[in-house]
Protein: dUTP diphosphatase
Amino acid sequence: MSPGADGGADLPEVGIRLLDPRLPGWGFPHWGSAGAAGLDLFACLDAPLLLAPQARPALVPAGFSVRIRDPGWCGLVLPRSGRGHRDGLVMGNGTGVIDADYEGPLLISAWNRNPDGAPVRIEPGERIAQMVFTRVARPRLTVETDDARPGSARGGGGFGSSGR
Structure:
């Protein structure tokens, strides 16, 4: 991983194991620009894939696995903004979380969110998602059993009540 604005002193080293030999020819691994947050993920398909509107999501191989190792970090698989807005291509699971101890093949859950309209076509080698690396906070959790302790007034009206 290349250094960030902080000089990279506290950035982890992430190992990448290529599982699909076509990836380097498509330009992987790289960020699309010097300021890009997400690492481009490519559809490692042998033939085009058509996603019907509102059909079940399809798992698309990204063609590699990662070794994050540091439990203070994880990867997030997110849709690409343009394809999501223009074509309705989003992640079937919303956001994919790649834990530091997961070292299996990366799969992209691709879904056509459009309720009606044309199928979404994914071509082999097309950039269809991005992975952002981020820090993980794991607070110490305590079980509170003292119901007499005064709490916040927030939440008394139920889910979504504070925005009325």
